[in-house]
Amino acid sequence: MITYVRTTGNKLRLIAMLLVLFNVAVSGHSLTHAAAADTSQSVRKADKQVVHGRWVRSDGGYVLELKGFGKGGSLQAAYFNPRPINVSRAELGRKDGRITVFVELRDRNYPGSTYNLHYDPKTDRLIGTYFQAVERQLFEVEFERIK
Q: Please, are residues 88 and 82 in contact by the beta-carbon 8 Å criterion?
């Protein structure tokens, strides 16, 4: 079990991330959306419009499509590498004033891999991490909007 402490500062964020990674290594579970999103901040209608569309990962041809939005931050998402990969859960949220996107993949060779992203309005990109569940590795990633 991980205890989250709400605080500021890069050192404490790093400690929290290390605790999450330790929990993944010890328990054998993927990163959960609890580590990715603060549900105390509500999603705004404009947030949905900002992230709606198709996004391509800058280091490859991986495509993330974000479309239908439901209540409570639920999100309809599709993921392609280049063929479709099952998205088991996708959520739109807000954390520290930023729009966040969480995507969990559950398919062959994707047993709980996750994306934890935030929208950067300056670059019009989704930036964050990808947890590759098979190899238990965390990668920094960016998605560019497909126009």
A: no
